[in-house]
Amino acid sequence: MFSPKEMPSTASTLFSAYASFAATMMMVWSMANQIVPYELCAYLHSALNYLFTPRSSALTLVIDECCGMPRNQVYEAAEVYLRTKVVPATDCLRVSKTQRQKHISAAIEKGEEINDKFENFQVKWLLVCTVSETFKPNSLTLGELLKRVSDARKEATGDGNETPVHQV
C-alpha cells in the first residue's frame, strides 16, 4: 500500500493504476472460467450469495408457559409486561381477580396482537395457545367430575355410605 506521501497525485497515474488492475482482473477471470468447472463456480456463487444476503428482519421467540412442572419465569414476566401495553385498540382482554388481589388484572387473550417498540426495534407480541398432547385435559363436565369424586370416596372409605358431594 501507498503511504500518504507516496500516493500518486496526477489523474494519469491513477488512471494507469486502474487500467492495470482492471486488465489483471479480466485476465484472472478468463483463466478461472477455463480452469474451474461450471458446477464449482455455481456452488461458490450460491455459497457467497447465501453468506452476503441479508437475513430476514423478523425473529420469532417462543415462550412456553411451563418448563416441566413449574411455571416459566420469562412467561410470567412477559405477561406482566404486556399488561402495561394494553391499548384501547385491543379487541379482547382476559380479566380476573382472586381473593388475594386488591385490584382487577387484565391480560391479552388468545390471538390478540400487541405492537411495541423497544430500543428502536419494532416488536410484535402475539399470544398463541396450544395444548400439548401429554397434558390434554379430560373433557369432563363438572357433574361427571363430581360423580367420579363421589365414586372414589366410596371406594376409599370401603362403605356404601355416600359422602355428600355438591350436586350441579
TrEMBL record:
<keyword id="KW-0378">Hydrolase</keyword>
<dbReference type="InterPro" id="IPR025753">
    <property type="entry name" value="AAA_N_dom"/>
</dbReference>
<dbReference type="GO" id="GO:0016787">
    <property type="term" value="F:hydrolase activity"/>
</dbReference>
<dbReference type="Pfam" id="PF14363">
    <property type="entry name" value="AAA_assoc"/>
</dbReference>
<protein>
    <recommendedName>
        <fullName>AAA-type ATPase N-terminal domain-containing protein</fullName>
    </recommendedName>
</protein>
<dbReference type="InterPro" id="IPR050747">
    <property type="entry name" value="Mitochondrial_chaperone_BCS1"/>
</dbReference>
<feature type="domain" description="AAA-type ATPase N-terminal">
    <location>
        <begin position="36"/>
        <end position="129"/>
    </location>
</feature>
